[in-house]
Each structure stands twice: as structure tokens, then as C-alpha cells.
Design brief:
Shape: globular
Largest sheet: 5 strands, parallel
Order of helices and strands: EHEHHEHEHHE
Distance between the termini: 33 Å
Radius of gyration: 16 Å
Strand order of the largest sheet: 3-2-1-4-5
Number of strands: 5
Helix content: 40-55%
CATH topology: Rossmann fold
CATH superfamily: HUPs
């Protein structure tokens, strides 16, 4: 089951915990890792709502892609002690949709993803990427979250 693992990372502490967990599983089971970062760019609807211009939209999207590259570079650094096969992918789109799409395209056998830890009304209204992925994934999903401090 842990022969080809997809690990989405967004730079949050929970995504790094998920990467560490996936690295441990891949090491133990001789698995391959696919580390994914999804850039969620601004659209013309965001532009309309914010009153911005096409120039600011292009600039913001370029900056988001640059940040995505830095997140993947950090992931590369964190994988320096991993001796198995690992690939790094950056996609553009809605995070949960892209994670599920890549899982299908790459024919992974599991997804290890960090929980953002949304609580209460935010979780009810917005859901979370990990929740959406677990509902629509074609393969088992391991959600890694930090323990409650209390």
C-alpha cells in the first residue's frame, strides 16, 4: 500500500509533518514519493471582487508561482536524507481537485496529507483540503495532524 505515495505540501507545519510521515512510510516499505504543491492563482472573479487590475492579477499569480517553487525547494531540502525515489510536481488549480487528479494520473496507492486544523464554523462552511481529498480520493488517505495541546 505504501509503494507509491502522493504527498501534497503547502508550507504549513502540518504539511511538513505529513512529508516526514510519508518519508518514513516510503523508507520502511521501499516506496516512491511524489511531492505535490498546488498553486491556487487568482482569477478574473477575484480581480472583479477586489477592484484590482489585470496587471496586479498577473503580478500576484507570478508571485504565487514563485512561492510555490520555494515550497517545493524546501521540500527538496527536507528530503535530502531520503534514499528512495522522489519526484516533485507543481500544479495550478483548486488544491483538492488537483490532488485527486494527480493521484489518478500517477496511479498512486496512497495519499499522505496534512490537516490544516480548521475548527468550528470555518470547517463547516469552508471544509478543508484534506477533508475534500479524503471524500473524493480513489485511494486510501492518511491525514496527519498535530495533537491537541490540551
Amino acid at each position: 500500500m505504501f509503494k507509491k505515495i502522493l504527498v501534497p505540501v503547502d508550507g504549513s507545519s502540518n504539511s511538513w509533518k505529513a512529508l516526514d510521515t510519508a518519508k518514513g512510510l516510503a523508507s520502511k516499505f521501499g516506496g516512491e514519493l511524489i511531492v505535490l504543491h498546488v498553486v491556487q492563482t487568482y482569477s478574473s472573479a477575484n480581480l472583479y471582487l477586489s477592484g484590482g487590475s489585470d496587471i496586479s492579477l498577473t503580478s500576484e499569480n507570478r508571485q504565487l508561482s514563485h512561492i510555490g517553487s520555494r515550497v517545493l525547494e524546501t521540500a527538496r531540502d527536507r528530503m535530502s536524507d531520503f534514499h528512495g525515489r522522489v519526484r516533485f510536481i507543481m500544479e495550478v488549480g483548486h488544491a483538492s481537485d488537483k490532488v485527486v487528479d494527480v493521484a489518478r494520473e500517477e496511479e498512486v496507492d496512497s495519499i499522505v496529507i496534512g490537516s490544516r486544523g480548521l475548527r468550528g464554523v470555518k470547517e463547516f462552511l469552508l471544509g478543508s483540503v484534506s477533508s475534500e481529498v479524503s471524500q473524493h480520493s480513489p485511494v486510501p488517505v492518511l491525514i496527519v495532524k498535530e495533537p491537541d495541546p490540551g
